[in-house]
Specification:
Residues 1-26 form the signal peptide. By secondary structure, the chain is α+β, with helices and mostly antiparallel strands. The protein has helices at 10-16, 41-55, 100-112, 137-141, 166-173, 190-204, 208-220, 228-231, 270-282, 288-295, 357-373, 376-392, 403-408, 411-421; strands at 59-66, 69-80, 85-86, 93-94, 226-227, 241-242, 250-251, 266-268, 313-317, 320-329, 332-339, 344-350, 427-438, 441-450, 454-461, 467-474. It starts with 9 loop residues before the first helix and ends with a strand.
């Protein structure tokens, strides 16, 4: 089980620039969602349906949050094959390791209650763990404990086809020499979450699932959630599938009971996982200090960042803060991604392992949704494409450029760009890959693919939208 860790003519564009700079500010951390209402849910449905067909997965269940509200929840494909059953938004999908963020939040709630500290060592609660007794709860939740992962494989190995208990997992994988000194490295470990779940049960006096139900799911109205590790999924829920190479889809072999305890045991609808994402955006369940711990990157003892908080991967992409996690159990892969400062979230659940559909659909939805929420990048890409096409023909609209850029683009430079790029064939791809700010300018990086060559295009724009740079770099 793993963390399953993107042409308009000049005249129309220039007319629009009278109201807003053509190269508008690039995705600031506090960007507003003034265009959220213009995002057409039908475009999301169309994208998901096309990708499910193109990728050949049985089905996908998707929920998209814009401005802190569920904009749409849709499904495509079939939740069961032979006999076929159409996918439904009410069908549950196993979410695998996306379950981990719920355990982390539960332990933060117990810390708020004064019943434990995330810096408590495991030996405070269990006396017979050997070296694992020195590991803290925080290290378990951040995958920095050094506990050997019991399931690094991408398939259900023979032992996992039989029922187990959390204690047996700890006896088999935790009670020996640690893989590394606690806090010194980051290495994904389901075993750490099993031990953390056992601590939660001992401190709270409840099962992990009962605690989650009473403190998280019920308060947030997440009514579909079940513990599939103990009871399986229902006849109206999605069936998990696997395949070998590019062969036919087969029902995936289930894990025995107990193996997913506290690390990947939950199943729910995409809408309910989106409700959880909204609670993170709104910070409505935990105290502010707990959210800071939840979302803060854990730093290793050598000073390097781990790119992981507590049950969540943390990153900065195009100057946007991103919280995300993937999940994989037998027959299911999920991906949940949150842009908390933009108040956007994307949930993709699929009922097939051995594929990248959840990641691919998330990536494409990200482009669609964030362009809909903040259209500056989309407008700027159209302008950049028009300038690029013009340069290949030996033309340049100098009114778009600063004095420095106009000095750079001498007639000789324009001629050389044109003569060297015009024979390279049609444009196959022109896509924004990264954006940000530097030196008071907004920069954007585009990946440009022609029939015979690839380039990286880097633009830099002044605050009024005037271009200070437009440079091609061969790849």
């Amino acid at each position: 089980m793993h963390l399953v860790f993107r042409a308009a003519g000049f005249s129309a564009l220039l007319l629009s620039s009278a109201l807003t700079p053509i190269f508008a500010q690039a995705a600031p951390a506090a960007e507003t969602n003034q265009s959220a209402s213009k995002l057409d849910p039908a475009k999301i449905t169309d994208l998901v349906e096309k990708e499910v067909t193109r990728l050949g997965v049985p089905s996908a269940s998707v929920a998209v949050v814009v401005d802190g509200k569920i904009l749409t929840a849709i499904t495509a494909g079939k939740s069961a094959l032979g006999p076929d059953r159409a996918a439904s938004p009410t069908a549950r999908y196993a979410i695998g390791s996306n379950s981990k963020q719920f355990l982390a939040a539960a332990l933060l709630l117990l810390q708020e209650d004064g019943k434990l500290s995330l810096d408590d060592k495991a030996s405070k609660y269990f006396s017979d763990l050997g070296p694992a007794g020195e590991v803290t709860i925080r290290q378990m939740l951040s995958h920095t404990a050094g506990l050997t992962d019991f399931w690094p494989q991408d398939y259900v190995f023979a032992q996992m086809q039989h029922d187990t208990t959390p204690q047996k997992i700890i006896d088999g994988w935790a009670k020996h020499k640690l893989d590394f000194a606690p806090g010194s490295r980051w290495q994904y470990s389901n075993t750490g979450y099993v031990l953390a779940g056992m601590i939660l049960e001992k401190v709270s006096g409840q099962s992990v699932f009962d605690f989650l139900q009473s403190r998280i799911f019920k308060p947030l109205g997440m009514t579909s959630v079940v513990n599939f590790d103990q009871g399986g999924l229902g006849t109206t829920d999605a069936v998990g599938y696997t395949r070998y190479g590019l062969g036919a889809w087969h029902p995936a072999a289930p894990e025995g009971k107990g193996w997913m305890f506290a690390a990947g045991e939950l199943a729910m609808t995409a809408e309910d996982l989106a409700r959880w994402d909204i609670s993170i955006i709104n910070q409505s369940l935990l105290k502010p200090a707990s959210y800071r711990e939840f979302e803060k990157e854990v730093v290793l003892t050598n000073g390097l960042g781990s790119r992981y908080g507590l049950g969540l991967a943390v990153a900065l992409s195009n100057e946007r803060r991103v919280l995300s996690h993937g999940g994989e159990v037998s027959g299911f892969i999920s991906q949940a991604t949150i842009y908390p400062d933009q108040r956007v979230a994307i949930v993709v659940l699929t009922n097939a392992d051995s594929n990248s559909a959840a990641d691919v659909i998330t990536d494409k939805l990200k482009d669609l949704v964030l362009n809909g929420v903040s259209p500056a990048d989309e407008v700027s890409a159209k302008v950049a494409r028009a300038i690029f096409d013009g340069l290949r023909e030996g033309k340049l609209d100098r009114t778009l450029f600063s004095s420095n850029a106009n000095a750079y683009f001498s007639d000789a430079v324009i001629t050389e760009i044109s003569s060297s790029t015009s024979p390279l064939g049609k444009v196959k791809t022109f896509k924004l890959s990264r954006s940000g700010t530097r030196g008071g300018m907004d920069f954007r990086v585009y990946e440009v693919e022609l029939e015979k060559a690839k380039f990286q295009l880097i633009t830099r724009a002044l605050p009024d939208g005037t271009l200070e740079q437009f440079m091609l770099f061969p790849k």
